[in-house]
Design a protein that fits this description.
649 residues, mainly beta, Jelly Rolls, Laminin, 5 domains, flat
Length: 649
């Protein structure tokens, strides 16, 4: 295949009189080579002659691809070896393997054969393993000779393996096998666990086990950030199982599936065991959970120990692994417990030491409205005492009729005067191939100020891949205020009207944390008067609260050429004072405060409509920090010029 040179580098390292390696990196005309080829050097050739040959070749800019050496491995298990294994590798070889498995999994790497030239510090021939996806990732080991290294476990889902030979000694080379594993021993005091491939759908036929251990004298706490696992009444297909201890023989805290986040979980000791299982069919987004250490106080230890010996346990179902409602002991009565379905398991256990009075409980049946036609619910029916509720699967919201479900999508309408906007899954990584929008509308006569609190989006010079884009209007047809990516928060952004539109986009490759932004309503701005009447309010919370103290707002209302501006007051209530010196509204017949003043108003306001002499009016509102009143609401429109204006006050 003919290749076109796009980037070249000639490297000749001389050590002890030996040229170690010469590399030329090529790019094909249509597709970049994924691996580095064999060296194109030839033993002990003179360096000047090599340079001359290289310059001669670059004039033609056509090359023949060298034999492949190394590759990117993406299967869940596999093997690789040095060139020509086991017949012996040649000198001046340079190969790179990149192993990349499903995010959330780790890689275990084993060398089953190793026979490389042995030197001090493995200087000449060696195979090197790095914990990541590039040559500067943390070094896990450099190996030569014939002693097999111990198994290597990655900390993430990627490994980098590099092989170099520079001696003329002939050995077999090496052979290595790898396997993707999920789960593991978690021995930090806090951390994060997620299902494989989260936040995208987990893969079929997964079995992952985590063993969490924190310091002695503490318990393990779990807080679920998100949860979406294939639903089944008994969680028989895909599920997350949690046990109170360090093994699968310890007591079950619960087996979880469906779309409801489990409540916070606390172990009775410093150990917790988790297992995630998926079958070969339906796959969902999975789960993300934070774990942490928590202090076990004396009172809690006593209670936990009692519940370990004598207790009554209530479950929704007939098996010992059905959903646990609670394990009870002591003297405090539990709240009323309602089963999920038409059966309940109550188990009482006592040891052979301390005996107490025991317990007495009443039970009664409640009609299961969900048993017939799923209660009329389109998706899921949840039986409650005396009634039932319809619920929707993830990605859907309940229809107004309370039975049907409609697709939720990722389009949001924000109508509050302040609010917070976050990317999907915040503060965890946003999913791939996601497009979301937010249409913000605030009180007429007010602008929207958007402030990014945090930004962590895949970086690109032009933000071509993942980005958040802000528009100065109601939708994406409005002018663009900015497109953002990377990790540097932009300066606050202010719209020119009471509407702003945001759109977030992610492609199918790199995922980051995303963004968090807050918006507030700002008074003032430039308004356009048209034949259609529009509204302007003194403050964003008009009708709900009095205007705030310390307000200084200016609006400029402009009509088209040949027309004036008409102001019609609907409501006017501002602190009254003889000279309107405290709180007031001022009108100017022009674009700013240097134009002729039409009046200063307070109390009950102007007695009638106000007309401009030109094509614009400036409205100024001021309030001090004492008495606050209802404020004002006016309507404005464009009109033909009037001969008579309000006189100045």
């Amino acid at each position: 295949m003919a290749l076109t040179l796009s980037k070249s580098r000639l490297l000749s390292l001389w050590q002890h009189g030996i040229p170690l390696v010469s590399i030329v990196t090529f790019t094909a005309a249509e597709q970049a080579l994924d691996t580095l080829g064999e060296d194109c050097g030839g033993g002990g050739r003179d360096l000047s002659q090599m340079r001359a040959n290289f310059r001669s070749q670059t004039r033609d800019k056509k090359y023949v691809s060298p034999a492949a050496c190394g590759e990117t491995l993406q299967d869940s298990q596999g093997n690789f070896s040095s060139p020509d294994f086991p017949n012996g590798y040649s000198e001046h070889k340079h190969c790179i393997w990149r192993i990349s498995v499903t995010p959330g999994e780790k890689i275990i790497l084993n060398f089953t054969s190793l026979d490389l030239y042995r030197s001090r510090l493995c200087w000449y021939d060696y195979v090197e393993v790095r914990d990541g996806f590039w040559r500067k990732a943390p070094l896990r080991g450099r190996f030569c000779g014939n002693k097999l290294p111990d198994s290597i476990l990655s900390t993430d889902s990627r490994l980098w393996i590099e092989f170099r030979s520079s001696s003329n000694w002939v050995g077999k080379g090496f052979f290595a096998v790898y396997e993707a594993i999920c789960g593991g021993d978690m021995k930090k005091d806090n951390g994060h666990i997620q299902s494989p491939n989260y936040p995208d759908d987990y893969r079929p036929n997964k079995l992952c086990t985590w063993k969490i251990t924190v310091l002695e004298g503490y318990h393990v706490g779990l807080t679920f950030l998100s949860f979406e696992i294939e639903r089944h009444d008994n969680c028989a297909y895909d599920y997350l199982e949690i046990r109170d201890g360090s093994s699968e023989s310890d007591p079950v805290i619960g087996r979880y599936c469906g779309y409801d986040r489990p409540d916070d979980i606390k172990s009775t000791s410093n150990k917790l065991w988790m297992r995630f299982v998926s079958d070969g069919s339906i796959n969902k987004a999975g789960f993300a959970v934070n774990y942490f250490k928590g202090r076990v106080y004396r009172a809690c230890i006593i209670q936990c120990r009692v519940c370990k010996y004598d207790f009554v346990e209530v479950r929704s179902g007939l098996t010992s692994e059905a959903k646990l409602h609670g394990k009870f002991c002591g003297a405090e009565k539990p709240e009323v417990i309602t089963s999920q379905y038409n059966n309940m398991r109550i188990e009482f256990k006592s040891d052979n030491t301390v005996s107490k009075k025991g317990f007495r409980a009443h039970f009664f049946s409640d009609k299961d409205e969900c048993s017939k036609d799923n209660g009329g619910c389109q998706h899921e029916c949840l039986n409650t005492f005396g009634s039932y509720e319809c619920q929707c699967r993830s990605g859907f919201v309940l229809h107004d009729n309370k039975h049907d479900c409609k697709e939720a999508g990722c389009d949001h309408k924000m109508t509050s005067i302040t609010g917070t906007i976050t990317s999907p899954n915040w503060p965890d990584k946003y999913p791939s191939k996601k497009e979301c929008s937010w249409a913000i509308t605030t009180t007429p006569g007010h602008r929207i100020k958007l402030t990014f609190r945090e930004l962590d989006i895949e970086l690109h010079q032009e933000c071509t891949y993942d980005h958040v884009e802000v528009y100065n209007g109601k939708d994406a047809k409005a002018s663009v205020l900015g497109r953002f990516c990377g990790s540097k928060e932009p300066d606050p952004i202010i719209s020119t009207s009471n509407r702003m539109f945001l759109r977030f986009f992610s492609d199918n490759s790199i995922q980051k944390k995303g963004f968090e932004a807050a918006y507030t309503s700002e008074c003032g701005g430039q308004m356009r008067a048209e034949v259609k009447t529009k509204d302007l309010y003194s403050h964003a919370q008009f009708g709900d609260n009095n205007y705030p103290g310390g307000s200084d707002c200016e609006w400029v209302i402009v009509a088209e050429e040949g027309y004036g501006v008409e102001l019609i007051f609907q409501t006017f209530e501002i602190e009254e004072e003889a000279d309107c010196g405290y709180d007031y509204m001022e009108l100017f017949d022009g674009y700013d405060g240097t134009a002729p003043r039409l009046g200063r108003y307070c109390g009950s306001g102007p007695p009638e409509e106000v007309y401009s002499a030109g094509d614009s009016v400036m409205v100024r509102f001021h309030s001090d920090d004492t008495i606050n009143k209802k404020g004002f609401h006016l309507r404005y429109t464009s009109t033909k010029f009037q001969d008579t204006l309000h006189t100045r006050k």
